[in-house]
Structure formats: structure tokens, C-alpha cells
Amino acid sequence: MDVLMVEQPLLSTLNQLLSAPDEMEKQLNAPARSYVRDTRAMASTPADVKEYTSSYVFVLDMPGLRSGEINVQIEEGNILSISGERKREEQQQQHKEKEAEVKYLRMERRVGKFMRTFSLPKNANADAISAEYRDGVLTVTVQKLPPPEPKKPKIIEVKKKMEFTFDQPLLSTLQSLLSVPDEMEKLLNEPTPS
Fold this sequence. Notes:
Layout: H1 2-29, H2 33-43, E1 47-51, E2 55-61, E3 70-75, E4 79-86, H3 89-97, E5 112-119, E6 124-134, E7 137-144, H4 168-189
Antiparallel strand pairs: 1-2, 2-7, 3-4, 4-5, 6-7
């Protein structure tokens, strides 16, 4: 019996040593806490997305926040990111008054960071975005870019090549007019009789 008792702690220790690499692998491959937190925050922030003829509208429920606690920004040119943090009222008051601890009887309201990201369509104008927060509801409006005008075909003017056709009397008159300078030159170059 003494042999079994001695073996039991030894086996237990060996088993722990052999299972250590498995535990380390689980910890190394586990998602980071910030990733898990951000994923939960994204999943628990409900949103409606509407498309109108001239804009896209994103409506998110965010009760219990002030407009200054909400961040709306465009990332990477076409990613709309909405984030913020909701704190418990007691946390805010404790910082002010240094009150004693609070005992919760029931805690159902969600607190912590929240975040939602939306990929904007190609026709969204990232420079024309407005956000309004009223009665716990955030409304973000993204205007659409005007549709591109269809290219008009370029009209090229076709020029008519001018061809002259002369009848015989007109041609002889033109030739005689053209020969007049030659005749005048002959006259001017002739020696004058003295």
C-alpha cells in the first residue's frame, strides 16, 4: 500500500508535466481579451441601416450616453466606425464623491465599450457625413455621390474638300491674268531706245 501512495503523487506530477504543453498551446492560441471584448461590444450594439435615394442612414440604440461619449469616424477611406463607452452611474459618482461600495441586487444593463463598423458602398460620399444623437438614438447620415454623367459621344466635323472646276473661257481668262506680270516684266527689262 505504501508503494501505491508514493506512486500517486508521482503519477500526478508526471501527468501535470505532460499536460503542460497542451495548456500552454491553448493559452497561446486563445484570442486576445481585447478582441473578445470588441467582438462582444460589436454584437451587442443593435443597428438599422437604411438606403434612401440620396443617402444611407445608420440608426443605433445607445441609451444612457451623452453625445460627447460617442465617436463617429471614417477609417481607411470607406469604413464607418462608431464607438464609445458606457459606465455605471456609481463609477462616475464614486470618482466624484468617493462613496462606499454599492451592492447590486440585480445588474442587467450593459456597460463597457461598444463599437460597430460598417463598410460603406462605393457611391457613399465620405466627406458628407452628419451624426445626430437624440433620446438615446444615434442617427448617422452618409450622403451618396451623384451618379456619374454618361460620356457624350464626341462629334467630329467632316470637312468638305473644295475642288475647283473651271470652264474653258474662265480658265483662259485666269491664264491671261497670270501671264500679265510676265509681259510687264518683259517690258520693264527691255532696253529703252535712246
